[in-house]
Amino acid sequence: MGRILNFYKGNKKVFENFSYLTLLQIARILLPFVSYPYLIRTLGSENYGLMMFSQALVIYFSLFVNFGFHISATQLISTAKTKEHINEIVSSVYLNKIILWVLCLVVYVTIVFSVDSLRLNYKVYLVAFFMSVNELLFPQWYFQGVEKMKYITYINVGVKLLFTVLVFFVIKRNDDYLLAQILQVGGVAIGAFVGFMIMFKGEKVNLSVQPTRKLIYYFKESLPFFISNVSTTIYASANKVVVGSFLGMTEVAMYDLGEKILNFIKTPVLIFFQAIFPNISRNKSLSKINKFLGLSFVITAVLVLACFVFSEQLVVLIGGNDMVAAKEIVQILVFAALFTCLNQFFGSGRLVVFGYKKIFSMIAFSGTLFFGFCFLVLKFTESITIYSVSVTSVLVEVFIFSCLFWVAFKKKLIY
Q: Where are the domains of the chain?
């Protein structure tokens, strides 16, 4: 007991941030579980699948708005020595994000009105784009860097909870899918704006126009993380796009259910890692990183086993009897969580912390290439099914882990 108390006291700030990040991730991952059973039954799998397909497309544009600042800015702010330096970082990040968001908006609108299948439901796709406002405005990276997550967490979770509750009062018919989209996007966008105002007013961060050379500097600092983030998210989000393009919107709804359960399993480790990242970036202690990894892997393994064994009950509980076919998808996808946990600590938790950002980006990009290779094999062998796409998702995580472990071993970063 004494060792546990000493460990807690030595990492008190980490555990505080972990608690607040947990609440944020509950709002992001678990609140959709609350409304999912109602939406899938009220809207039907076809209309719900359309919503998820449009949101999957927007994720690609959100990546460009984020541009890896969620890692680079967190790291820079956690090591900044003066308020002036923090103001410079925050101002540069937001100016870069605004430029990227406007460019993405122009490209996205052009694509929607140029593709017949998208133009048919253009209102759904245009509303979906404003989910990217979260990446534009929400300053989670700032509050992680200064390790102050308390108030922003309470307000952000409160806003998202409100909009989740509204779903049950507003959505009544299967043609209310546009209204459902507005509610989901509204909760995200308003929560992001409130978070921005807390940083601006509460933390008294001064935003100012920065010289071009500063914008370019922070842009370049974030580039390796952008490449890594794009590479990871391309194959993660591409699965829904592939399923929707080759199989149908009902299948998108089934895959989305499996992915929601997978995200639920990954949530504790992702939260924990976000909480400890500023700490391990400063201390660079392999023994501490390995302790955190061991704890995270055990938690993940327990959740994977539970979800695998009770997959049918989970699917019926969340999606109803009509979605029972998603059971096999869940049983495949959950194993990706084990390798996501390992990849988090061997990638950002080792290579990034110890200065091997470019190698980390190259490995993440190679994962995208591996996904592309798997997709081509499935396409040319006419083997694209919802199950083969799920297996591919797991194989990509295994491939990335193999590369990360090999590099960490060569660089003597295992222990």
A: 10-410
Distance of CA 340 to the CA centre of its chain: 12
Contacts of 168 (CB under 8 A, 6+ apart): 35, 38
Q: What is the band of 13 on the pLDDT scale with cuts at 50, 70, 90?
A: low
Q: Note the pLDDT tens digit of each residue in 373-398.
A: 999 999 999 889 999 999 998 999 99
Q: Which amino acid belongs to residue 105? A: L
Distance of CA 376 to CAs 53, 363, 369, 380, 382, Å? Answer: 21, 20, 11, 6, 10
pLDDT tens-digit profile of 208-252? 888 999 999 989 888 877 877 776 677 667 788 888 878 888 888
